[in-house]
Amino acid sequence: MYSNNVFPAAPPTATRSIWPVDPATRLGPVISGRQRESIAQAVEGALGRGARLAAGGTYAIAERGHFLRPTILADVDRSDPVARDEIFGPVLVVLAHEGDEDAIAAANDSEYGLAGAVWSADRDRALSVAARMDTGQVDINGAAFNPLAPFGGWKNSGLGRELGHIGIEEFTELTSVQL
Fold first, then answer.
1. Domain that holds residue 167
2. How far is CA 119 from CA 84, 123, 154, in A?
3. How many other C-beta atoms are found inside a 10 Å radius of the C-beta of residue 90?
4. Do residues 47 and 78 both lie within one domain?
5. The pLDDT of residue 65
6. How far apart are CA 116 and CA 111, in angstroms?
7. Could you tell me if 109 and 89 lie in one domain?
8. Which CATH number do you get for residue 83?
9. How far apart are CA 151 and CA 165, in angstroms?
10. Total domains, the chain
11. pLDDT band (50, 70, 90) for residue 23
12. Are residues 102 and 174 in the same domain?
């Protein structure tokens, strides 16, 4: 569950240019103009289907480059494509749930499973929810990305892993020899 007051840390909607080499940069560009348009269309489509823009927006924060404003969407139906598809852009979709089981069911009701997030003041509860999510990675309370941990998705979010010792094993070949 969430209220209309869950967005105190909404992302800034700065209008100045931000470049990857600038030490102050917190968010870089998306990979291409085509991807930028795809993300913008996903957000605009969700807004047209009743989602509420809680913060941000779809257009660039820079004069050039493939930048997008960080965006938070609320009041999104869990069947909406913006809630079900992999957007690969600075878009956060907030869904309301009636308890842990409903939240887990919603998280797992997707053909994708790259990553998920759990926010809770109760560590054991967060770990219990994370253990039941069908994703390759779960961050709890905004935990930092760990380059030593294997990364990769479940379901249609890819095959195999990268990073960590398991990622290295993806580049090895095994030969079984029997006598």
1. 98-178
2. 19, 9, 21
3. 20
4. yes
5. 75
6. 14
7. no
8. 3.40.309.10
9. 11
10. 2
11. confident
12. yes
Amino acid at 35: Q
- Write down which residue in 96, 124, 150 finishes a domain: 96
42 within a domain of the structure (yes/no): yes
- Digit-coded pLDDT (tens) for 150-161: 888 888 888 788
Cα angle 85, 33, 90; round to 5: 45
The tens digit of pLDDT for each residue in 28-83 reads 788 998 999 999 999 999 999 999 999 887 666 556 678 888 899 999 999 999 99
d(CA 18, CA 28): 7
- Whole-number Å distance between alpha carbons of 72 and 4: 12
Query: Where is the domain boundary, 81, 96, 111?
Result: 96
One domain for residues 92 and 112: no
| Same structural domain, 42 and 64 | yes
